From TrEMBL:
This is Reverse transcriptase domain-containing protein. InterPro entries: DNA/RNA_pol_sf, RT_dom. It comes from Aegilops tauschii subsp. strangulata (Goatgrass). PANTHER family: NON-LTR RETROELEMENT REVERSE TRANSCRIPTASE-LIKE PROTEIN, REVERSE TRANSCRIPTASE ZINC-BINDING DOMAIN-CONTAINING PROTEIN-RELATED-RELATED. It comes from the Eukaryota.
């Protein structure tokens, strides 16, 4: 369990239990075993403090705060044990469209596929009439109905006693809201799962998975078409990451109404409510205006433009200078630096901030696009000026007493070990390319193969094909990966024409 975490209402943290386990270990173990045998949660074990974490620098209304639950360590032992029983089976239980909280699945796949869809929508050669809607679920964890969770678990064939144990965990807590360090007003809830409970992420994806299954059934019954990005490409009906939903389909009023009925039925059963003001819709290029307006009357959402983001990434990238869509990363750098009085910090403190905070900010974005050298230079200039003078504006020149490439070299070579952002960017794109090459059964591999190398392999893609930002990034560095990898000839699955291979 996580160390140095805030304790629950009983005031005992993990370190306390570790230090006193020789005295209290038997009692705690017997309490946990008794719960597993009887399914009855002991009194006050499931008491919970709710702490409000500000989402913004200036938080004025309740919606500006994120409620986090602080649970007792003994309860976390129970919930973690149940979560560990569920976790290994999630890849089999949950549809491939869901990428959150499941081992082996990545948030980057969701983002890349979404950007591939919008890229195809913008092509003049794309003749299909399609649309994609992004749906944000309001207070998704807090609204989830317990009966819906139990029904979803039952449909997976889990044992009744195991389901009863989970139901006891999610239905028995007593809450107190912590205001100015003091808990107030004990109360019970009638639905919802807690952010802070080890079970919650897995229960949530199992519940939301019911939507994916219904959409899949609708496609099997020809009620929905989804989006097909190329020959032999599996149709895409949805992309999910926890409560962030992207649903795709044919741009027809019939399909839109079917999709809306499915969504309404799911929300009615699960307790979810779409946040339409934070949702959006995008159409492919050949959808006429009348059809667009008819579908937008079904879904009361805004039209997605260049500023719309999905999981922190822009959904639509410009055809030229694609890096410009990520200019907000520069703003993140500057706003983060503005919180520190850098000119008052020692160089050792500045180095610690650079290594632990600033060098890691762009990593999340670098896995999906190879930034231009000019953009990397701007990021590096901000870090360099922060190191030398504490000034955060990249346009401000500072006196540099040593070459920056020497400062970025490893400590054993006399440098400070600061990350070279361009090398980090290339290595992350190389990792993505390697995962694609190594996982031919993965959804992302199938989509990229259908678009860019239908009759070949990632090593020899089809020439003269319009490229998305991600695929263009792959092509710029694939020669590095190809030079350092090869296939061993064994069972004959390697193409001697398109795959790098070696007979020894």
């Amino acid at each position: 369990m996580k160390r140095n975490a805030s304790p629950g209402p009983d005031g005992f943290n993990v370190e306390f239990y570790l230090a006193t386990w020789s005295w209290i270990g038997d009692d705690v173990t017997n309490l946990v075993i008794t719960f597993f045998d009887t399914g009855v949660m002991p009194a006050h074990i499931n008491d919970t403090h709710i702490v409000l974490i500000p989402k913004k620098l200036v938080s004025l209304v309740p919606a500006d705060y994120r409620p986090i639950s602080l649970c007792n360590v003994v309860y976390k032992l129970i919930a973690k044990s149940l979560a560990n029983r569920i976790k290994p089976h999630l890849p089999d239980y949950v549809h491939p469209s869901q990428q959150a909280f499941i081992e082996g699945r990545r948030i980057s796949n969701n983002i890349i596929i979404a950007q591939e869809i919008t890229h195809s929508f913008a092509l003049s050669s794309w003749k299909h009439q399609s649309f994609m809607i992004k749906i944000d679920l309001a207070k998704a964890f807090d609204r989830l109905e317990w009966n819906f969770i139990v029904a979803a678990l039952s449909r997976k064939g889990l044992h009744g006693h195991f389901i009863n144990l989970i139901h006891a965990c999610i239905s028995s807590p007593t809450f107190s809201v912590v205001i100015n360090g003091q808990p107030f007003a004990r109360f019970r809830s009638g639905r919802g799962i807690r952010q802070g409970c080890p079970l919650s992420p897995y229960l949530f994806v199992l519940a939301i998975n019911e939507l994916s299954l219904v959409l899949q059934d609708a496609m099997s019954n020809s009620l929905l078409e989804g989006v097909i990005l190329g020959p032999d490409c599996p149709p895409i009906h949805s992309l999910l990451f926890a409560d962030d939903l992207l649903i795709c389909g044919k741009a027809s009023i019939q399909e839109a109404m079917t999709m809306k009925q499915i969504l309404d039925s799911f929300c009615s059963a699960s307790g979810q409510t779409p946040h339409w003001n934070k949702s959006g819709i995008i159409f492919s290029g050949h959808v006429d205006n009348n059809n667009m307006q008819a579908i937008k009357r079904v879904f009361p959402v805004q039209h997605i433009d260049d500023s719309f983001v999905h999981l922190g990434h822009p959904l639509i990238l410009p055809a030229k200078n694609r890096t410009s869509a990520y200019n907000f990363v520069l703003d993140k750098f500057k706003s983060k630096l503005s919180t520190y009085k850098a000119d008052k910090l020692s160089h050792a403190a500045r180095l610690q901030l650079i290594q632990s905070v600033f060098s890691s900010i762009p990593v999340y974005y670098m896995s999906n696009i190879l930034f231009s050298k000019k953009f990397i230079a701007k990021l590096t200039a901000i870090i360099r000026n922060f190191w030398w003078t504490g000034i955060r504006e990249e346009s401000t020149r500072s006196l540099c007493l040593k070459a920056w490439k020497d400062i970025c070299s490893p400590k054993k070579e006399g440098g400070l070990g600061i990350r070279n952002l361009q090398a980090v960017n290339q290595s992350l794109i190389l990792m993505s390319a390697w995962r694609i090459a190594q996982n031919p059964d993965d959804q992302l591999h199938k989509i990229l193969r259908a678009k860019y190398f239908p009759d070949s392999s990632i090593w020899r893609p089809k020439p003269n094909t319009p490229k998305s930002a991600f695929w263009a990034s792959i092509l710029k560095i694939i020669h590095i990966l190809k030079a350092h990898s090869f296939y061993l000839l064994t069972v004959g699955n390697v193409s001697i024409w398109s795959s790098p291979w070696c007979s020894s």
